[in-house]
């Protein structure tokens, strides 16, 4: 021990170490500072730093999750819309009887290989709805590769004789079929130009839908020679003068009661003053 030097102390520059740290001498009177050891940081500071790191991680977690979700959504969108992984390979048609499934598929006009997610269902339904026999169509997706089409066809209400056969009309007055023979059970309506925009067709449909079961059972045909010239020919050579289509439910009820009386001509054109002869 050198006389005059305090015990337990080392002078800086002679290889001593500062409390809680470490220093390496690189030359006479020159020192290099390095990171202090863990035991140099007070426990309270270490706990504070750990809590701060956890808070930063919790704050960053939602952003990381959100970025992952966006990336995943982008990948899924690309797979669904930009590739043929989920492409249309089949068009399944149900409810088609008057129209063939082949005609429905042709009207749908969805090329095979089109991504199923990119098919505009409303447009497809509208195209199928242009078929005369189709009242409406319901179109959907059946993953992974099938387009489903449910066809709701028109319901026959009556037939209209014409030069090319019997034109079948529905409750909207739409002509959707032409047949050689009148289907059994459908009344005959004699009109000049049947169609949904024809006032005489509308009048005939209004009368038909107002008939009671008794009148419908006796009905042979309806003749429309003008908006106020509607007549019903019944079985047994009986005729009902209907007039116009106004108050048709009342006229139908009155004519049904008069069927019980004798007479071949029943006039209900003015339902408050009826005649039978």
Quickly list its features.
six-stranded mixed β-sheet, 277 residues, elongated, Ubiquitin-like (UB roll), three-stranded mixed β-sheet, Rossmann fold, disordered N terminus
Report on the structure:
The protein contains six helices and 14 strands. Mean pLDDT is 84; it is low at 1-28. The chain has helices at 43-82, 101-108, 121-128, 199-210, 213-218, 248-258, and strands at 23-27, 30-33, 90-94, 134-142, 146-153, 158-162, 165-169, 175-179, 188-190, 219-224, 230-234, 238-243, 265-267, 275-276. The longest helix has 40 residues, at 43-82. By secondary structure, it is of the alpha+beta class. A hairpin with a 2-residue loop joins β6 (158-162) and β7 (165-169). It folds into three domains: 42-82; 90-153, membrane protein fhac (Ubiquitin-like (UB roll), Roll), CATH 3.10.20.310; 158-276, Rossmann fold (3-Layer(aba) Sandwich).
Q: What would a concise description of this structure say?
A:
This protein is α+β, with helices and mostly antiparallel strands and 277 residues long.
The first-to-last residue Cα distance is 153 Å
Summarize model confidence as the mean pLDDT: 84
Give the helix level as a range of percent: 25-40%
How large, in whole angstroms, is the Cα Rg?
A: 45 Å
- CATH architecture descriptor name of the largest domain: 3-Layer(aba) Sandwich
Strand order, sheet with most strands: 9-10-11-12-13-14
Shape: elongated
The secondary structure category is alpha+beta
Which CATH class of the largest domain?
Answer: Alpha Beta
* CATH topology title of the largest domain: Rossmann fold
Enumerate how many helices there are, as a single number: 6
Q: Order of SSEs, N→C?
A: EEHEHHEEEEEEHHEEEHEE
Tell me the strand percentage band.
25-35%
* Count of discrete structural domains: 3
Low-confidence stretches: 1-28
Tell me the number of strands: 14
Tell me about the largest β-sheet.
Answer: 6 strands, mixed
